[in-house]
Fold:
Amino acid sequence: MKRPIAELWGSGSYTPTRVMTNDEFSKFLETSDQWIRERTGIRERRVASPQETNACMGKAAAEQALRETGLTALDLDALVVATCSPDRLLPAQACDLQAILGAKRAAAFDVQAACTGFLYALTVAEGLVASEQAQHVLVVASEKLTTITDWQDRTTAVLFGDGAGATIVRRSTNGRGILSSCLKSDGTLAELLYRPGGGAVHPPDEQLLKDRSYYIKMAGREVFKAAVLSMADACDQALQRAGLTAAEIDLLIPHQANIRIIEATAKHARVPMDKVYVNVDRYGNTSAASVAIALDEAVRTGRLEPGMKVMFVAFGAGFTWASMVVQW
Ligand code: UT7
Structure:
């Protein structure tokens, strides 16, 4: 088994207080609680208020992780934010977070890998630590997806939610840390899950508002199939690179998009469902924040304890997908 270079130290998360149930959607969309629950496993999601920005949610999650480690914001050398729904398009979300966190010494930048963003960001942080660019890297995954979701489109509106998660990456201690990781992408499939308008190709104009191309568009069924195949392959890769078998994994934390995708991934990876962390029922799909929030919850509820081996796996727009095995 590989010796880890970097470890995840402490964790935190923040989810908005406003809970939106499936029944609320059936008041203005042709949908039902039954359809949403049966097809996705989602019962409710959190919806951020205008005051609950990514910067604020990220700050709350980060402060929790900092408190746990005894570090202050001034101890941070770098701050990496994973998001696909930033508060504003320029500057990076990480710079706004750095400002309100008071992380004056830290380099700050974003990683955009959609739902896979947290795992990409952790890998970048591991690299910063390995190359001795940084001692303490704050990794935050934060999303306010309800602002880029088309609330008139039942095929996407019911799926997404808001929230943030955080951890700190530092040099490994006592054999703890990242045992393996695997990052993949396929940009030829970008248009199966994307936001067509609002960028430099289709800058904001009247047409953009009319055709609602500012919002997320998804070919759900195709994305579903790709997610199952890719996450299954990513689990195999991470296990192989770590020199471990599925039986040696104590907890699987998959991206929380759909309970059927989670079950199919766990089945392929040969990890029984009682070793799989699931909170998609309470938060829906929070993209990059999904694995980060689940990780913090797993720690706080005692599902993830020191000495355990945890495997993360995620899939999202890009397409991007990734996995990671961590000695906790
Ligand atoms: O975060 C990473 C990326 N995202 C994902 O991983 C999501 C991947 N996709 C999925 O989770 C699923 O494909 C969905 C949950 C989006 C859809 O489930 P599905 O079982 O693939 O349904 P479908 O798209 O094949 O649609 C089945 C039917 C359609 O009606 P017809 O054509 O059979 O008459 C849809 O129009 O369900 C209809 N439908 C709905 N009905 C009620 C779609 N959305 C809804 C809805 N309520 N909200």
Notes: The pocket of oxa(dethia)-CoA is lined by residues 31, 35-36, 39-40, 115, 154-155, 158, 193, 220-221, 223-224, 227, 257-258, 261, 285, 315-316 (CB under 6 Å). The chain has two domains: 6-174, 178-327.
